[in-house]
Design a protein that fits this description.
The complex is a heterodimer of chains A (about 100) and B (about 260). With about 100 residues, chain A is an alpha+beta fold. Chain A has 2 domains: about 30 residues; about 70 residues, no CATH class. In chain A, about 30% of the residues lie in helices and about 10% in strands. Chain B has about 260 residues and is mostly helical. Helix content of chain B is about 50%, strand content about 10%. In chain B, helix 3 crosses helix 4. Chain B is elongated, with a radius of gyration of 23 Å. The model of chain B has no long low-confidence stretch (mean pLDDT about 90). Classes of the chains: A alpha+beta (about 100), B mainly alpha (about 260). At the A-B interface, helix 1 and helix 2 of A face helix 6, helix 7, helix 10 and helix 11 of B.
């Protein structure tokens, strides 16, 4: 590629990337859906967990025990750490997975 | 063959007799019990394929699909304990399956469904923010060499058939009678938040995104896309990737070296 060609390309790339930013500034539906929810570990009953990829996938509903520490449910934001979990060291659901203590 | 090997072989081949050395708790003939077990194994694998390849099944009907899936399950049983990913080679099997030759788009629709499952289970990775793009824009000379890292759920499927439209028609998103199957389409598959999305993109955008995905620089990927179609919409394609939070890192070789 010639030097002239290269500088033209750089300018056009800069223009395109700048324009792309304004396209991307449009609000995003998926984000909004998640905004009022949080992943809560250790509060799902056996077989009732959601999944890393959302309900309906093959790992949803696969937890083996009640309040399994590495299985989570989507719950309304702010409620997770107020939800009782007998297996949790804090006594409540947590925002990250944890090792269960004996209930 | 080891006892385990002959047991496994007999599970997958109904022509083989019940393996020797099996006994039932009450002394009854183990052969009918083994046949029940064999049936359960195969049916569970066919069910797993039917879950993953739901549209593929709708396109050919349950009877045809299950017969085809049975042959596949016996020929290519799972190699991993993760049943979710079982069937990664099923699209290739379909492509080489003579009775399915009358439905030439079937293998590509199956590929799209398989890529959706991969996207479902891909890791979460945070997208870049506008400040990182701003920093890249500030160094205009480095832009052609800029390398993008894309979200691990992302893949591109180019097809000679209308894979996106066929798939969408089976989700109730459009009318099947309006789909012309022999129209080439390119699918962008990714997970955005918790939702797996199938987005139809132009062939040139498909070339561009696929090139970025394998580590080509922005300049090289843009040139490859422009060679595919001079009217390639670079800004729109980059905007789509940013909007779907599919760009997870930017590397400028000049700055890092």
């Amino acid at each position: 590629m010639s030097t002239l060609n290269k500088s033209l390309t750089a300018a056009s790339l800069a223009f395109a990337l700048g324009a792309a930013l304004s396209v991307a500034a449009t609000p995003v539906a998926a984000q909004e859906k998640m905004a009022d929810k949080e992943k809560c570990f250790g509060v799902a009953l056996k077989g009732k967990n959601d999944c890393k990829a959302g309900a309906g996938t093959t790992c949803a509903g696969t937890s083996k025990i009640d309040y399994q520490g590495n299985a989570w449910s989507l719950v309304p934001k702010g409620t997770c750490e107020k939800t009782a979990s007998p297996t949790s060291p804090t006594g409540f659901g947590q925002l990250a997975e944890f090792k269960e203590k004996k209930a | 063959m080891s006892p385990q090997g002959s047991f496994a072989a007999a599970l997958l081949d109904p022509e083989r007799p019940c393996p020797a050395g099996l006994t039932a708790w009450n002394g009854s003939d183990p052969a009918p019990r083994f046949r029940v077990y064999r049936n359960n194994v195969i049916v569970s694998l066919i069910d797993a394929l039917a879950d993953t390849f739901a549209v593929t099944q709708e396109l050919v009907g349950e009877e045809f699909f299950r017969a085809m899936a049975r042959l596949y399950a016996c020929a290519q049983p799972p190699q991993s304990r993760l049943l979710a990913f079982y069937g990664a080679s099923f699209p290739d099997f379909i492509e080489g399956f003579p009775p399915a030759a009358g439905v030439p788009y079937l293998a590509d629709v199956a590929r799209l469904e398989q890529l959706r499952v991969v996207a479902y289970h891909a890791a979460d990775v945070a997208p870049i923010g506008s400040d990182e793009i701003g920093a890249a824009l500030a160094d205009e000379g480095a832009l052609p060499g800029l390398v993008f890292r894309l979200h691990p759920s992302l893949s591109v499927l180019g097809s000679a058939f209308a894979v996106v439209s066929l798939w969408a028609a089976h989700q109730g998103l459009r009318e099947l009678s309006t789909v012309a199957p022999a129209t080439a389409e390119t699918a962008l598959i990714l997970r955005h938040g918790l939702a797996v999305e199938v987005i139809q993109v132009s062939a040139a955008a498909g070339v561009f995104i696929a090139a970025l995905r394998v580590g080509e620089s922005l300049g090289a990927a843009a040139e490859m896309a422009a060679a595919e179609d001079a009217g390639f919409d670079l800004a729109g394609t980059l905007g789509l990737l940013l909007q779907k939070e599919a760009v997870t890192a930017l590397h400028s070789p000049r700055r890092s070296s």
